[in-house]
Design a protein that fits this description.
The chain is mainly alpha-helical. It is 78% helix and 0% strand.
Length: 140
């Protein structure tokens, strides 16, 4: 589209917005009219900053991509490859979780004390001190 077409689109949107703003002002008051006026000026601002043209280009690019997605065998092969990649990744994660950690340390089961999985003696001493303090205060 050329500048004349973009200008006509902008003028049409601004006029429609102006009419809508007038009715909003008459029916719902000043606040609704001011909000409508703000929205009415957006197409004009988009035209002056060439943002409207940018949105047109983005829309064309998305439409071209969607048409290629539907009609291009190359794109469908890419979709299949992406699916296979996802399945391989998820399968690899599942296998790693099933095997456990690589460092050879046994997993700690919930509710199991650190002593049961070979935690350092210093940690056991700290826990023993804490347990003794709690017992002395009547907390079990």
């Amino acid at each position: 589209m050329d500048d004349v077409a973009w200008g006509a689109l902008t003028l049409g949107l601004t006029l429609l917005g102006g009419i809508w703003t007038w009715f909003a002002y008459k029916r719902r008051g000043l606040g609704a009219g001011l909000r409508g006026a703000g929205l009415t000026l957006l197409p004009l601002a988009a035209y002056l900053t060439r943002t409207l043209k940018m949105f047109g280009r983005i829309g064309d690019a998305v439409a071209d991509w969607a048409a290629d997605l539907v009609f291009s065998p190359r794109v469908w092969i890419g979709v299949v490859v992406a699916g296979v990649a996802g399945v391989l990744y998820v399968t690899g994660r599942a296998i790693e979780r099933r095997k456990g950690p690589r460092d050879g340390k046994p997993k700690r089961v919930k509710g199991e004390s650190p002593k049961a999985v070979g935690a350092p003696a210093a940690e056991d001493d700290d826990l023993a001190d804490i347990e003794a303090i709690l017992r002395s205060r009547g907390i079990t």
